[in-house]
Design a protein that fits this description.
It is built from 2 helices and 15 strands. It is mainly beta. The strands form 2 sheets. The protein has a 6-stranded antiparallel barrel with strand order 10-11-12-15-14-13. Strand 2 and strand 3 form a beta hairpin.
Length: 243
């Protein structure tokens, strides 16, 4: 999910399409790379009328037992972010780039911790993952012009979106630095390379360091600024809970 797609997603029960991509106008992630990128599959998400639906987010393994993602992926029936016990069944899959040929490593999420500084949440896994190398959380403030890699399991388009079966990547450039968020623009393969629906929580990283996570942006694909949540401002908070 992305913030501007939440209400639309709440109206539908999403099923995986036979063929779907991620990161609009991106490219395939080669086999064996970016195993730390997590696909979060949620079911029985409540609506105010008592009905439920399914949805997806992306995240990043930042410690053997913890995944970092967007806070708004976990909420109550009124779409208010929640902490504590995971509010609905959530499966976290890591260590693969193609769901049609690989099984990866699957874990259940058990606990959600919401950050106060920005739209980010820590997710505790039921069992630590020891076969995937986590991303290191950056402690350095990003700079305008800096290039970052984006990788996610989101949709190719905002029109009738479907979660991905193949992990995609793209390159973005930092366009704006705010106290807790980061604005980025597509750089490669195209200037319209951008996060899309179900990319919420997707990591933006460089040299093995997590710089920010997907929060929200215009309809995808687009050449505008995407809003992401800075990781460096949460580094101490993350270490406190995951050490």
């Amino acid at each position: 999910m992305r913030l501007r797609a939440l209400l639309a997603a709440a109206l539908l029960t999403i099923t995986t399409a036979p063929t779907a991509w991620a990161v609009a106008h991106g490219s395939d992630v080669p086999p064996g790379q970016f195993g730390f990128v997590a696909k979060l599959s949620m079911t029985k998400i409540p609506r105010p009328d008592g009905s439920t639906y399914a949805s997806y987010c992306t995240g990043a393994l930042i410690a053997p037992g913890w995944v970092l993602t967007t806070g708004h992926c976990f909420h109550d029936a009124h779409r208010d972010r929640v902490s504590g016990k995971v509010p609905y069944p959530t499966t976290v899959t890591l260590g693969l780039v193609d769901e049609t040929t690989e099984s990866g490593v699957a874990r259940k999420a058990t606990e959600v911790l919401q950050a106060k500084e920005n739209d980010v949440a820590l997710i505790r896994l039921d069992t630590p993952v020891t076969t995937v190398t986590p991303l290191t959380v950056s402690r350095t403030a990003p700079k305008i012009g800096q290039q970052l890699t984006l990788a996610g399991w989101g949709s190719l388009t905002a029109t009738n979106p479907a979660p991905a079966q193949r992990l995609q990547q793209g390159t973005v450039a930092v366009a704006k630095v705010d106290p807790t968020t980061l604005g980025v623009r597509g750089a490669a393969p195209e200037i319209t390379t951008s996060a899309c629906t179900y990319d919420s929580g997707a990591p933006y990283f460089t040299d093995g360091r997590l710089v920010s996570l997907e929060a929200t942006g215009p309809g995808c694909p687009h050449a505008g600024i995407e809003t992401t949540s800075r990781a460096d401002v949460l580094a101490d908070w993350i270490t406190t809970h995951t050490a």
